[in-house]
């Protein structure tokens, strides 16, 4: 983290020539303030049924839905690259989606089978989950819906059941991305009571109602289903103080880490959260951010490798400790090859 305003004025020109330290790579490296490392990366992966399947997601070039065996192979690759954690998102079969979302807490649902398979094969890799109902919901919402209203307290009960099933399957980090009020406290109490005292919660505390989630909704099959929008539970992109109040609330209820989402358009929020609370902060460089960089690079309009590196360094500069990014394996390979 930067230490704040410098306590002196720079000597006037030519006493200070900032270009002296930019003259050569060695001096630029010496004067560099922030570092991006493989330890800062969380790799989101999409799971689907079957074996030996890699199904491309057209709106996310380079990302595919993978069957559990392929997920395990990628988990092994993550461990080889030194990536500390993966995050699993299921593509649920359409006939298992319902208004009641019961599949969400089925101990043998796709996500839970994937957690077990990964933990059996690569126990040292941290597995993060998504706690929200949208991959299981007939109407694409993160919560239970009645007469067009997203129900808060009823949804919390479902999220608690879902959390316990994920913890039972071996998840290391639970990632509630639903934005219901009060879910962190309920999840924490239930985890303690069930003996899962060391399962971490990374709360999606400041999650905005964003247009940048489009490709993700394609990936989990929620796009065509979503009825209306998520503005009654996700944050208004115009707000900033509210993010601090949400973070304070989630920390007080037992969150171990907090997330800001999306990432690049909300770096000011990342910075304020880190400065205010000094807790582990992560950002989610979401599907639309990834797609923008990939698409522009695919057209030859920007240098994709440099844009990836610059965007991820920006999260570190803003104060983030970790970044969920679909670029995780590419970035990890680049960092390895540069050493
Ligand atoms: C929903 C969820 C979303 C993402 C992660 N969890 C989408 C949404 O809120 O509609 C988006 C991630 C991305 O865009 O990469 N529980």
TrEMBL record:
PROSITE patterns given in the database record: D_ALA_DEHYDRATASE (PS00169)
Record-level GO cellular component terms: cytosol
EC numbers: 4.2.1.24
CDD domains in the cross-refs: ALAD_PBGS_aspartate_rich
Pathway(s) it belongs to: Porphyrin-containing compound metabolism; protoporphyrin-IX biosynthesis; coproporphyrinogen-III from 5-aminolevulinate: step 1/4
Keyword Transmembrane helix: no
Primary enzyme class: lyase
Pfam families tied to this protein: ALAD
One GO MF term: porphobilinogen synthase activity
Catalytic activity entry: 2 5-aminolevulinate = porphobilinogen + 2 H2O + H(+)
GO biological processes: protoporphyrinogen IX biosynthetic process
Keyword terms of this UniProt record: Heme biosynthesis, Lyase, Porphyrin biosynthesis
The UniProt record lists the keyword Calcium: no
Active site: 207, 261
Gene3D superfamilies linked to this entry: Aldolase class I
Subunit structure of this chain's protein: Homooctamer.
Family: Belongs to the ALAD family.
Protein name: Delta-aminolevulinic acid dehydratase
Species name: Szabonella alba
């Amino acid at each position: 983290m930067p230490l704040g305003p410098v306590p002196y004025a720079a000597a006037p020109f030519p006493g200070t020539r900032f270009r002296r330290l930019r003259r050569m790579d060695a001096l630029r490296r010496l004067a560099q303030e922030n570092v991006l490392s493989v330890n800062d990366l969380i790799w989101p992966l999409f799971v689907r049924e079957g074996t030996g399947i890699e199904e491309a997601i057209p709106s996310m070039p380079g990302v595919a839905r993978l069957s559990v065996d392929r997920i395990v192979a990628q988990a092994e690759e993550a461990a080889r690259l030194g990536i500390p954690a993966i995050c699993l998102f299921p593509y649920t079969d359409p006939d298992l989606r319902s208004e009641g979302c019961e599949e969400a807490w089925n101990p043998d649902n796709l996500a839970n089978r994937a957690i077990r398979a990964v933990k059996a094969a690569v126990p040292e890799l941290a597995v993060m989950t998504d706690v929200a109902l949208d991959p299981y919901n007939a109407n694409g919402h993160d919560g239970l819906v009645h007469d067009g209203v997203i129900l808060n307290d009823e949804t919390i009960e479902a999220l608690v059941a879902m959390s316990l099933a994920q913890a039972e399957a071996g998840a290391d980090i639970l990632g509630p991305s639903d934005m219901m009020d009060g879910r962190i406290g309920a999840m924490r109490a239930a985890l303690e009571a069930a003996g899962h005292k060391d399962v971490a919660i990374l709360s999606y505390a400041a999650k905005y109602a964003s247009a940048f989630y489009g490709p993700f909704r394609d990936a989990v099959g929620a796009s065509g289903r979503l009825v209306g929008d998520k503005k009654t539970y996700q944050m208004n992109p115009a707000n900033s103080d509210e993010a601090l109040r949400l973070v304070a609330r989630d920390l007080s209820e037992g969150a171990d880490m907090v997330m800001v989402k999306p990432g690049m358009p909300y770096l000011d929020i990342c910075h304020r959260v880190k400065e205010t609370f000094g807790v582990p902060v992560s950002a989610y460089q979401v599907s639309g951010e990834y797609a923008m960089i990939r698409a522009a690079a695919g057209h030859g309009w920007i240098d994709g490798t440099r844009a990836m590196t610059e965007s991820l360094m920006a999260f570190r500069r803003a104060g983030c400790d970790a970044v969920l990014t679909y670029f995780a394996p590419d970035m990890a390979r680049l960092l390895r090859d540069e050493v």
